[in-house]
Amino acid sequence: MSGIDRVFQAMHMSASALKAERARVDIIAKNIAHANTTRMPDTGLPYRRQVAHFAPVYESQRDGSVDITGVRLAGVHKDYSTPFEIINDPGHPDADEDGNVLFPNVNTIKEMAELITALRAYEANIQVTDSFERMAQSGLRLAE
């Protein structure tokens, strides 16, 4: 593989990470937006936190080897391991006969920490992409 091919492969890897992290940010934002949704229209239950799962992207090479060429969003799964929060609020429209209300299993502090992590990863991949772009421009200038 030539040097130029490696630069473009690295840019592709970084671009795939940007796309995956963007999806993760969107999922986290959705979780935060629904942090107080006590009844979803389709289930009648509180909103259940969603989690992004990533997976590597593999590419077969001519010599029979396999390289990791990026990352992708493998799926979005609901968090069933964290229980709903139960709050006693007899005046709430979704309160049961004991006055208890089920709230989503969304911890906004945890979501904000996840958001910061996702944004830092996004920013790091932008810097990587910028670095490869500068390297490619330098290579083109040298070729003149």
Summed up, what is this model?
The chain has 2 helices and 4 strands; from the N terminus they run αββββα. The protein is an alpha+beta fold and 144 residues long. It has one domain.
What does this entry look like structurally?
The longest helix has 36 residues. The protein contains two helices and four strands, in the order αββββα. The mean pLDDT is 91. Helix 1 packs antiparallel against helix 2. The strands form two sheets. A two-stranded antiparallel sheet has the order 1-2. Helices cover 47% and strands 22% of the residues. The radius of gyration is 22 Å and the shape is elongated. The protein is of the alpha+beta class and 144 residues long. The chain has one domain. It starts with a helix and ends with a helix.
Secondary-structure map:
Elements: H1 3-33, E1 50-60, E2 66-78, E3 85-88, E4 100-103, H2 108-143
Antiparallel strand pairs: 1-2, 3-4
